[in-house]
């Protein structure tokens, strides 16, 4: 009986270690809007030796949407946000980079190169995450 109790207790003591290593760290990018109009958000990130840009995620007033799922701590990430008149939000005191986008749904590989037909060069703003999910609020 003592052997069974010992195995049971030692199994319980080792569970947090096993559970702790099984959970993958992540830091998603979440964009919220406290503006009065809908926001349209595109993102650009570095993947497999090239910059990829894609869009659009719609963020309703007073709502939040996850823009990028994964570990942002390891992936440089930029966003571009505009209202329904295509007026961009300017995010102060952030690094910027120019990436190509389209006004319709898109995914562009090598988005930091020359923009071809139907693409527009736009200023994206860098978003840097800490240890946890990064929440950006558009006002």
If you had to describe this structure to a student in words, what would you say it looks like?
The protein is α+β, with helices and mostly antiparallel strands and 139 residues long. It has one domain (29-138). The chain has 1 helix and 9 strands. It has one helix at residues 2-22; strands at 29-33, 39-47, 50-59, 64-68, 77-82, 96-101, 106-109, 120-127, 134-138. The strands form 2 sheets. It has a 6-stranded antiparallel sheet, with no helix packed on it. A 3-stranded mixed sheet has the order 4-1-9, with no helix packed on it. The longest helix has 21 residues, at 2-22. The radius of gyration is 21 Å and the shape is globular. The chain starts with a helix and ends with a strand.
What labels describe this entry?
139 residues, six-stranded antiparallel sheet, three-stranded mixed sheet, 1 helix, 42% strand, disordered N terminus
Count helical runs: 1
Tell me roughly what share of residues is in helical segments.
10-25%
Q: What form results from the Cα inertia axes?
A: globular
What is the rounded distance between the termini? 64 Å
Q: Report low-confidence residues grouped into runs of 5 or more.
A: 1-22
Query: Strand-residue fraction?
Result: 35-45%
Put the structure in a nutshell:
This protein is an alpha+beta fold. Helix content is about 15%, strand content about 40%.
């Amino acid at each position: 009986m003592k052997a069974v109790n010992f195995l049971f207790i030692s199994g319980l003591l080792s569970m947090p270690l096993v559970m702790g290593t099984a959970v993958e760290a992540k830091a998603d990018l979440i964009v919220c809007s406290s503006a009065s109009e809908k926001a349209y958000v595109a993102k650009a990130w570095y993947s497999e030796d090239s910059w990829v840009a894609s869009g659009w995620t719609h963020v309703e007033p007073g709502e939040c949407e996850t823009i990028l799922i994964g570990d942002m701590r390891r992936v440089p990430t930029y966003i571009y946000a505009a209202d329904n008149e295509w007026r961009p939000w300017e995010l102060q005191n952030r690094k910027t980079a120019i990436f190509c986008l389209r006004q319709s749904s898109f995914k562009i590989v090598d988005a930091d190169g020359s923009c071809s037909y139907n693409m527009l060069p736009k200023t994206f703003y860098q978003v840097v995450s800490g240890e946890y999910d990064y929440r950006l609020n558009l006002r």
